[in-house]
Amino acid sequence: MKLPTALINDFFNHISALGSKEITILIPIFFFLINENLLATKIIIGIIIIYVIGIPIRLLYKKERPYKKPRNNVYEIMEANSFPSMHAARSTLLIIILIQYFQYEIKISLFFLVLYVLILIARLYKKRHYVIDIICGIILGIIPFIFL
């Protein structure tokens, strides 16, 4: 049985959203609410480091996405560039921190790991990035963790 393309596209749209800026903001808020302030702060600082490194790279190294996007202002220029993948960077930072936090909860850690891999696959499937964008995004997501 072959799944309809619309269903697959919809699935990957939802999976890709898990690596979005909005979800990335909600995760530290959740940890603040459950009094895991150090963990929430670590995530926020990590995300700031990712953007401090990633935004200049995107603005200076103008690598087109697999599909063209408008470039009328600085924000659109940054969003139109695909290198490095900020979804991959944010997701990598979060997966490392979440697996460390849930290190004794193997099923939870595996669940997050599967979501992480699906987010990376979704970015390729949706033609938002090339493989090199994802690889460099992963490296960018590891960098803050080294210093935290």
Task: Give descriptors for this structure.
single chain, 148 residues, mainly alpha, 74% helix
> Residue share in helices?
over 70%
Order of helices and strands: HHHHHHH
Question: How many DSSP E strands?
Answer: 0
Q: In the residues, how many domains can be counted?
A: 1
Percentage beta strand: under 5%
Quaternary form: single chain
* Gyration radius, rounded: 16 Å
What spatial form do the alpha-carbon principal axes imply? globular
Mean pLDDT: 87
Q: How would you concisely characterize the structure shown here?
A:
The protein has 148 residues and is mainly alpha-helical. The chain contains 7 helices and no strands. Helix 3 (37-60) crosses helix 7 (131-147).
Could you walk me through the main structural features you see in this protein, from its secondary elements to its overall organization?
The mean pLDDT is 87. The longest helix has 24 residues, at 37-60. It is globular and about 40 Å long. The protein has helices at 5-17, 21-33, 37-60, 74-80, 86-101, 106-125, 131-147. The chain has 148 residues and is an all-alpha fold. It has one domain (18-147). Helix content is 74%, strand content 0%.
Secondary structure layout plus pairing:
Blueprint: H1 5-17, H2 21-33, H3 37-60, H4 74-80, H5 86-101, H6 106-125, H7 131-147
Helix pairs in contact: 1-6, 2-3, 3-5, 3-7, 5-6, 5-7
